[in-house]
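>> received
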Amino acid sequence: MQFQNSLNKKNVNASKTITTREGYKVDISSDIWDLPYSISASRLRLSKFESTIIREAVKRYVINRMVHTSTSSGRIVFNELVQVILPFINENPENIADVETLLIGAFEQSIAEAKSENRLWTLYRPISWYIWCEKNIPELGFSTGYARQLASMTIPGCSKGEAVRSLDSHKGPLDRSVELPLIINALKIDKSMEYRHLQEKTALALSIALGRNPSNLAYLRESDLSKLTPFNEDDPTYILKVPRIKKRNLNPRDDYQEEYLDPFYGRIIEQLIKANNAIKLTFDGVKYNSPDQRPLFINQAGNFSAINAYLAG
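>> returned
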């Protein structure tokens, strides 16, 4: 009962909106949050947590991450908490009222599974959530002793790049002697001008040429491609300005890295930009006609979460 009384006194929904670190408004007045996330549609359904106490604790930490770190950070920790907590709750619905015991059980189960699969690093954010909650909102049902136990754990670093180094046949890189030549050849013989195919070919070409995170590609605009023909128009030089998504900028487009592209890949991008011209972009009464306003990869269906977040803000 004391947990519920505390919850009633400090309910996060007393505030209707928050401002993320990037300066975007997010409506938090309900249990469905649409995030202004550029890469893909992102809707957080807080109602997945049946316990109002756990739901409140998740909300507060997600808000903290979005305000002080980034929208993406809040989104990621929410998804990871869903994976850690919900399976145990679904298996033990009779304990839903005992928040402290329920959370400890959920973490113990997830930790045991992660250790057996050598992926303990995947629990870094959920563990940080529990420790943060015990420090800031212990009255909601977080054990001081268990938080100390979690804080004393040694969490190994992410095994970043391991699949590439190990040449894993499923998760590793393309075989440069067999697979990569076949893919490049398929690009060369594919003459389809269907819009979706042009987008797919451009994404594939850029992935081969740059090896970048898909987020880099999502932030590209038409104006980022430059074509230089100082000597021979038949053999131009293409330069692409690639946003630096892993810098601590508020906006990935605050900084770029220029990359030279093979003319073959540059021409594929040019075909997509030409096809983009047939698509009229208008939002909230504003027309987007300039190449520096138009994304290279246009989502014709629209990003409903980002649109809802914009309208709510």
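>> DSSP finds twelve helices and nine strands in the chain.
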